[in-house]
Structure formats: C-alpha cells, structure tokens
Amino acid sequence: MNESVQIEIRDLTKIYKLNKKQMQESHTKNPKKTAVDHLTLTARAGEIYGLLGPNGAGKTTTLRCIATIIKPTSGEIFVNGNEVQKHSEAVRKSIGFLTSDIKLDPQFSVDYLFDFFGELRGIAPAQIKRRKEELFTYFGISDFAHKKIKELSTGMKQKAAIAVSLVHDPEVVIFDEPTNGLDIITARGVTDYLRKLKEEGKLVIVSTHIMSEAEKLCDRIGIIIDGKKRAEGTLQELLDETRTQDLEDAFFQYFKSVKGEA
Ligand SMILES: Nc1ncnc2c1ncn2[C@@H]1O[C@H](COP(=O)(O)OP(=O)(O)OP(=O)(O)O)[C@@H](O)[C@H]1O
C-alpha cells in the first residue's frame, strides 16, 4: 500500500437486518436493507474527502464501518494499513470520530468529559491539559467549559463534541455532518478547523448534503446514492464530467442518471 494512503475501502457492503417495526416503517416486506453496496474508495493524508449524498444514501453507515462502530457485512477497510476488524484498537487510536448519534452525557461538564475521554484513551495528563487549552481556546469553549452538557445550546454541544473527539490528536478525522444545525459563524469555525487539520497533513473525511460546503471545503468528493459510489473527483472534475457550473447541478445530473427524472 502507498505510504501516504490512510484509508482504503475495498468493496464494502453493509446489509442491516430489519425488525418488524423497521419493516413497517420502511413499507417493505424485505427484512434486509442494503445500506452500502460494494463501495470502494481511497482517501489520503493531507486531503479533505467529502462523502456527498441524499438522505439514506449510506454515508453514516460507511463512516461507522470505518470507525469500527459497526461491522461490515463484507469487504475490507484499512486505516493506515490496519484492517478495521482485525486491528480495531489501533484503528480507534488513529481516528477521531464525530457523529450525531454519539451523545455526550448531559449530566457532566465539557471540562470533565474532556478529561474523562482523554484518560480513557490513555493520554498523559499533561497532554490532555495542553490539548484542552488549544481546543477550548480555538472553539471558544472555555467560557462554558464548567457548565453541564444539558445546559448548552446546540452549537455549544457540537463544539464540545468536536473537542472531545479530537482529544488524542488523531491522524484521521471522520466527521459525519459536522456543521448540521450550526449557525454560519459556528459552522465556519468548524470548517476552518478542518482546513487547519488538513494543512497539518491529516486526513479529514466529512459527510454532508450541503453542496456549498462540499464545494468550498473538499479536495475530492465522492457522490453516493443508494449505497453505491456514483462519481468521484475534484469539484472541477465533477463539473467537467457533467458539463455543469456548480455542484448542485452536477449532483442532480448524477441523481437523475440513477433515479430517472425527479
Ligand atoms: N441500524 C439500522 N438498522 C436498519 N437500517 C438502517 C440502520 N441504520 C441505517 N439504516 C438504513 O440504511 C440506509 C442508509 O442509512 P445511512 O444513515 O447510512 O444514510 P445517510 O446517507 O447517512 O443518510 P442521512 O443523510 O439521512 O444521514 C437508510 O435506508 C437507513 O434507513
């Protein structure tokens, strides 16, 4: 494997088994849902790779498989050469993962949780302190660090979750819709931080359905629809391929080619 390659996904498929309630809710008699369907992609150090797709496309499922939260049905994922199922501990050490379904305990303060997760990850106290100063200052957390999570606004909670996910200074940062629900000032703070991580040589993978964000932020974009990767490239490559002027138009071209006219 190329030394600079940090994430390699080979032929990833994830099939969920649906219970009766989920089948009813999805109006289906099929007890299996293929969320990710033979997905292959490679992302490298020093880039921001964006997974772009509509609701239910399989973005979160893909990211959760990389982050060792769920097991792939088939296929392989390597993070820095470590296969995620065989070397899950090493993979978890090198990854910072943020997703809306990981919630910080509402009873505790940001300050406490940062220390708690730092210790859990085996980080030395002096390093936890240093990381805390750096991240709390950057995200303006110091003013509310002593407050309980349940007392915080959506934006404050998201900043806290981001800081906690980065306590161990990971090489690979995987953020699932990191700016969801944030005002533009807070969202900009987050995307600027992702750019800073990239400049430090880290690999950042984000999922989003915000076209303008993907357009400005991502070095390469993978378009995923119904669990399959339908296109991949730089913004310019996607625009050239679809002969469009912006990502939204390009996205609709790909969408129409899969689903027919909307
Ligand atoms: N735990 C689960 N059990 C059963 N089905 C699931 C589960 N998680 C996700 N799915 C289904 O798998 C498909 C892909 O979902 P996923 O959350 O990966 O999509 P997504 O692209 O992240 O969507 P969104 O943009 O809405 O977050 C959807 O049809 C979803 O309903």
TrEMBL record:
GO terms for molecular function: ATP binding; ATP hydrolysis activity. Residues 7-251 form the ABC transporter domain. Keywords: ATP-binding, Nucleotide-binding, Transport. InterPro entries: AAA+_ATPase, ABC_transporter-like_ATP-bd, ABC_transporter_ATP-binding, P-loop_NTPase. Belongs to the ABC transporter superfamily. This is ABC transporter ATP-binding protein. The lineage of its organism: Bacteria, Bacillati, Bacillota, Clostridia, Lachnospirales.
